[in-house]
Amino acid sequence: MTAELPKTSVAETLARKIVALKAGGLPAATTRKCEDLLIDVVGLCVTARNEDYIKSALAGCDDDGPCTAIGHTRRLTASGAAFVNGTAAHGEDFDDTFEGGPVHAGAVIVPAVLAACERHNPDGRMALVGIAVGTEVLCRLSLVVPKAVHKAGFHPTAIFGAMGAAAGVGAALGLDAKQIVDALGIAGSMAGGIIEYLAEGAWTKRLHAGWAAQSGLRAALLARGGFVGPRTVFEGVHGLFHGFAHTTQGDYDALTGDFGTRWVTDTLAFKPYPCGTMAQPYIDCARRLAARGIKPEDVAEIVCEVAEGTVHRLWEPLADKQRPRNGYAAKFAVPYLLATGFVHGGVGLGAFTEAAISDISVLALAAKVKFVIDPDNPYPNNYTGHIKATMKDGSVIEERQPYLRGGAQEPLPRQDVTDKFVLNAEHGGWSNAQSDATLELLAGLYRSRINLSSLRQ
């Protein structure tokens, strides 16, 4: 028996609220966060531009066109640029995080909207609206059935990213409500992304953001051309949540209820370290422990209290997390990351080379790190850190961190975001002059006609 369809679907309610938003009508805090996203994402594209996975991504593109692959002279179609830039922005796992998800919005939405606007509507004001809308949709979708998509074996950024990109590109290109509903419906059939990359540190997580960006862009263009998608894409008996969360029962009001009047985008977190988000507070705890003057060789054991929902990605199999198979796997291995932060005073882009993951002093400490599940851990609403270190003399020292540094409770100021951009650009081989010129361009991009030609270098 076919279920009775709603008179007004979730996508239709959302689309009406999206088209009601006007250029210039965003709150100042949301505009500022979208400015930070632009700076952060462009810097991340530059830092990854010479990496093997980006060379492979470019080699796999045979769709040259007029759009900018940031940090490269070669130009691509809009969808190709969205794919390469999204893959680059997410590639080093140094991009923003929405703590309630967890999802990574900037690496999907900024590449999708920039490519769409560069090709079809080079209006900076509409790019700003599109980035705000796409980010908001992606983040809010992660609140409908929290943790369920990850638990089902899928990457939420990939699944919800396609939907957010479709909404963001639709808003940036001025699609009407019906077209946005169609775009969302079409994107539902393009969403995908399994998390089996965790097994051996394969590269597929890196392309999830890029694939979602180009999928959402294509969905929006198809809808603009008249292609029809299912209006019950979210709540339908065979809809997005049925497919990727194994339920159609969710808090859809979290998506549509106060959309456009309250912006969760304002709470986006920017990472201090280029690795898994939930690991970051543990690194901070480790650094504070080392700052007490404790030596790694004095430690007998470290036990961390963790959220059950993070175990399958960041803690198990424990032996692999203590001694990662490769640099990318190390980004999702808390024992290794914690030990690196303790031994070297931090975790930077250089912590994931073959030499770094073979560091004997780091591996010796990582082998002492274990975990216990804290049933009261507030994840995913809040990311906490905890270390209980037992010394060889029997003494016990603990460190706790109640929230993610760089997140809603301790946001990074604009100068820190800019400093991160400069460091990322330097890592990608850009000169100080190139960085300065790019920062000047980005400062006015939302107020002018979009021209990204200076980023093709």
Automatic annotation (TrEMBL):
Belongs to the PrpD family. One of its GO terms (molecular function) is lyase activity. InterPro entries: MmgE/PrpD_sf (IPR036148), MmgE/PrpD_sf_1 (IPR042183), MmgE/PrpD_sf_2 (IPR042188), MmgE_PrpD (IPR005656), MmgE_PrpD_C (IPR045337), MmgE_PrpD_N (IPR045336). Transmembrane segments: none annotated. It comes from the Bacteria. This is 2-methylcitrate dehydratase PrpD. Residues 12-247 form the MmgE/PrpD N-terminal domain. It comes from Bradyrhizobium canariense. Residues 273-428 form the MmgE/PrpD C-terminal domain.
